[in-house]
Structure formats: structure tokens, C-alpha cells
Amino acid sequence: ICRDIRRPAVIPTASPAGAAFTALPEAALVIDPRSAAIVDANPAAERLLGYPAAALRALRITDLHRGQRPALVVFTEEVLYRGVAHTRSLSPLKAGGGTLRVEYAGTVLR
Fold first, then answer.
1. Could you tell me if 2 and 12 are in contact, meaning their C-beta atoms sit under 8 angstroms apart?
2. Is 31 helix (H, G, I), strand (E, B) or coil?
3. Nearest to 2 by CA among 25, 18, 35
4. Which of 33, 44, 78, 92 has a CB 3.0–4.6 Å from the CB of 27, allowing a cystine?
5. 82 and 92 in contact (C-beta within 8 Å)?
6. What's the mean pLDDT when you consider all of the chain?
7. pLDDT below 70 — which residues of the chain?
């Protein structure tokens, strides 16, 4: 999950599936950590990042974080090891160019 750090945090309690995932007020991405593929993106992620969901699903998370691989790997490893992690060290690329200042919260989906 990534969020604009200019807005207060809203921590979702539902698992990202179906209507609950779509209705989340915060941007949410489901990532396959092995392939770095973006498996799904909710409408809030589409609006925040400026990509339609289909375009996001065609990307890898590394495509949104060019030049940030070390920080992305550290964040991903922390999520996989601890089950949950937060970071403000990643800045995704917007569809129209430029980057966003966001806070990521990651969790392992089982």
C-alpha cells in the first residue's frame, strides 16, 4: 500500500480481494515478490500513480522505482521477514513523469 504523506494515514483492515480491495481509500498494489510483477492495483492506486489498472499490471514494481532497487529490496526483505513494514524511502514514478513522496506499508498476504 502506498499513500500520499500529505494525507493522514488510513490503515485498511480488509484483505485486498474483490470489493474490499476496490473500495480501499488508499492506493494499494498487490506485488509478487519473486517476479516483482504488479498483480493488481485498486482505483486509488490508478488515481495516485496516473496509470490505468491494466497498465499497472503490465509493469513490475521495479519499473515504478527506477534507480531505487537497493531501497526496494530492503523494504521487500523486511516485509517478507517481519510480515509487515513501512517506509518513506521510496518514490514511485507517475505516469506523466515526476515522482511522488509516499509512505509504503507492506504486508504478506497468505
1. no
2. strand
3. 25
4. 44
5. no
6. 86
7. 1-17
Alpha helices in 1-110 (DSSP H): 18-23, 43-49, 53-57, 61-64, 69-82
Q: What is the pTM of this model?
A: 0.80
Are 5 and 104 contacting, i.e. CB atoms less than 8 angstroms apart? no
CB 40 within 8 A of CB 30: yes
91: CB partners within 8 A, 6+ apart: 65, 68, 99, 100, 101, 102
Give 73's strand partners: none
CB atoms within 10 A of CB 36: 17
Q: What is the pLDDT of residue 37?
A: 94
Cell 517478507 belongs to which residue? 80
State how far the Cα of 82 lies from the Cα of 61, in Å rounded to an integer: 20
Question: CA-CA distance, 49 to 32, in Å (whole number)?
Answer: 19
